[in-house]
Amino acid sequence: MPQEHAEVFSRNCGECPIRHRAVCARCEPDELAELDMIKYYRSFEAGQTIIWSGDQMDFVGSVVSGIATLTQTMEDGRTQMVGLLLPSDFVGRPGRGAAAYDVVATSDLVMCCFRKAPFEEMMGRTPHIAQRLLEMTLDELDAAREWMLVLGRKTAREKIASLLSIIARRNATLNMQGPKGQMVFDLPLTREAMADYLGLTLETVSRQVSALKRDGVIELKGKRHVTVPDFERLLDEAGDDSDGGMLA
Amino acid sequence: MPQEHAEVFSRNCGECPIRHRAVCARCEPDELAELDMIKYYRSFEAGQTIIWSGDQMDFVGSVVSGIATLTQTMEDGRTQMVGLLLPSDFVGRPGRGAAAYDVVATSDLVMCCFRKAPFEEMMGRTPHIAQRLLEMTLDELDAAREWMLVLGRKTAREKIASLLSIIARRNATLNMQGPKGQMVFDLPLTREAMADYLGLTLETVSRQVSALKRDGVIELKGKRHVTVPDFERLLDEAGDDSDGGMLA
DNA sequence: CGAACGGTTGATCAAGATCAACGTCGGTGG
DNA sequence: CCACCGACGTTGATCTTGATCAACCGTTCG
Q1: Would the pLDDT of B177 be above 80?
Q2: Greater confidence, B1 or A54?
Q3: B226 touches strand D (CB under 7 A)
Q4: Residue B2 CA to D2 C1' — how many Å?
């Protein structure tokens, strides 16, 4: 049986770790106060399904800590990840009743949830929220399109390198470092989840990770702890042009 | 040399064929009048590149008539389509200076362009525009995610069937018919463009189209004119569950 | 301890890529 | 008028990448 998270979170938005990146990033104190009235926290453990595709959704919200995946599954069991949710990412689609994808917690996870109806109502008259959500959605769309190139045209090796560089870069921006030189991080995904991300089998993922290690593109400590000695080299293996998608 | 379009378009938004579906769908008469002051029409011929990836963009806009594609290209020439733009679809990303993708007119095309800076300024104080753009962006994100499943997990035959069903469905909603029973339409894409859409080679596209024809899933008159005798059958071949993605 | 889970590695197979030839249609210029 | 060319499409033969099937390892957890 799931044991309740012992950890206690401050309800105070001022202390919120994702305050400056989430949907509420642009909100004024009075707007935060209003959001506060319709918000609540929920904890999930690793492996738990947060939302089932097709379910009626009565909340939207932000990932506060932990990692979740958005996945689509065909009747015969083939599954494709279509979103990777990190802290500050938004869950749920205002204006739609039913969830379109499964949302699964990959690690232990905390969400800041807003009751859906009041949130939608508030969004309608609070440009600060609507604007921020638009911005975040446009970013997600860009990420999805980058991902489509990976899925449609890259080789298995390039796919793995692409995924590693994406995780490395996200990690760097989270720690507010530039993405260059040596980088170290932990893989937040199992080999199977990586396969579902990249449209591969887990065997192919395992082989290509080993190959990148053998060729010195990455170093591994255990199965998950990755060191990238030369980020440019990794980008090269990913087939990305060197600028790495820096957009004005 | 490109010959100028002889056709003349009414500047009048009241007669605009995409009025009810575009970014301006929710605008009041006074807002339309303001948009009118920053708008202009541009025509492109089939094959013409509208925007090059990396270019500075000085406008955003809506496709009024015709079809365009968003594509990404790797240094070695591999290309992946990441968006298919039909009438009423929006082009450009407010808040970003440089284009992230190539935009190419697949057919002769007319765009209703807005000068970027004034449009962004106006969006900041016109919720009707921002809200509609958010809604359209969320729809595009959903489409991109559906597409990711196609790219990552479907077989070549399923990919072709998926593309045909998407085009058939879009066509049906444009003509305001329900997507069922017999459907007839023209393919707006060459075999090569279909391949770039689906992450296949043009040879595989050709073979699978022939196979679907041989198996009676579709009928062809010429290379482009398609008849789908049984839409359910097509959905089945696409591996989609029967509801066809009808979401509340 | 044994089972479950995550991961690695090997042998074999098949879907789709690649290379190549050919067909059709619609201009265009001699 | 016809010959030629280029764009688009089809089909065949062969090759390669990644899938599939299978065995096995190490860790963790009842």
Answers
A1: no
A2: A54
A3: no
A4: 29
> What is the residue-wise DSSP string for A21-81?
TSGGGG--HHHHHHHHHHEEEEEE-TT-EEE-TT-B--EEEEEEES-EEEEEE-TTS-EEE
CB–CB of B141 and A145 under 8 A? no
Chain A residue at shortest CA distance from B56:
A248
Domains and CATH numbers, chain B: 13-146 (2.60.120.10), 155-238 (1.10.10.10)
pLDDT band at B202 (very low <50, low <70, confident <90, very high): very high
Long-range contacts of A205-208 (CB under 8 A, 24+ apart): A205/A156, A205/A160, A207/A156, A208/A156, A208/A157, A208/A159, A208/A160
Which residues in chain B touch residue A144, judged by CB atoms under 8 angstroms apart? Answer: 141, 144-145, 148
pLDDT at B218 over 90: yes
What confidence category does residue A171 fall into, taking pLDDT thresholds of 50, 70 and 90? confident
What is the secondary structure of A155-217 as a DSSP string? -HHHHHHHHHHHHHHHHHHHTT--S-S-EEEE--S-HHHHHHHHTS-HHHHHHHHHHHHHTTS
User: CA–C1' span, A199 to C12, in Å?
Assistant: 22
Categorize the per-residue pLDDT at A242 as very low, low, confident or very high, splitting at 50, 70 and 90.
low
Q: How far is B71 from chain A (nearest CA, A)?
A: 9
Q: What is the mean pLDDT of chain B?
A: 91
